[in-house]
């Protein structure tokens, strides 16, 4: 039996996560429309700046006031920014990501016109938060966001 495109795209997001230079968490993302890939991304610093696993192999990059990475872009941000930089239209797109979007990424996803988000693991569980604020935000404002069931 052939795998569904949902499975193919989530598997690609999982493989892309392995490209991350982050020593804390590796996250991958794939943006699609109508069974076609628009853009890909993984978490890490902006291209041409540094690689956390090389510069700070034991600890990772410096943390911000909330304990998050202070220097890297999230996988969703990288995928969206690359798409926009190259003139891709994101209205109605679907995002596959290995970790549910944080609230700032959810606002970016909503503003970009992405209509569906499938995620593998919970950002809230990873960060020890009470709920997935990003997923709640997306669903509240009409973006279908749900855990991917393989």
Secondary structure blueprint with pairings:
Elements: H1 5-17, E1 28-33, E2 36-42, H2 52-55, H3 75-85, E3 94-99, H4 103-112, E4 116-121, H5 123-127, H6 133-140, E5 144-147
Parallel strand pairs: 3-4, 4-5
Antiparallel strand pairs: 1-2, 1-3
Helix pairs in contact: 4-6
Mind explaining what this structure looks like?
It is a single chain. The protein is of the alpha/beta class. 34% of the residues lie in helices and 19% in strands. The protein has 6 helices and 5 strands. The chain has a 5-stranded mixed β-sheet with strand order 2-1-3-4-5, with helices on both faces. Helix 4 links the parallel strand 3 and strand 4 (116-121). Helix 4 runs parallel beside helix 6. The chain starts with a helix and ends with a strand. The model has no long low-confidence stretch (mean pLDDT 92).
Q: How far apart are the termini? A: 14 Å
Q: Widest sheet: strand order?
A: 2-1-3-4-5
Q: Beta-strand level of the residues, as a percent range?
A: 15-25%
Query: Fraction of residues in helices?
Result: 25-40%
Number of strands: 5
Biggest sheet descriptor: 5 strands, mixed
Shape: globular
Low-confidence stretches: none
SSE order in H/E notation? HEEHHEHEHHE
Q: What is the overall pLDDT average?
A: 92
Please state the CA-atom Rg, rounded to the nearest Å.
Answer: 15 Å
Count of separate DSSP helical elements: 6
Oligomer: single chain
Protein name: dCMP deaminase
EC number: 3.5.4.12
GO molecular function: dCMP deaminase activity
Pfam family, one: dCMP_cyt_deam_1
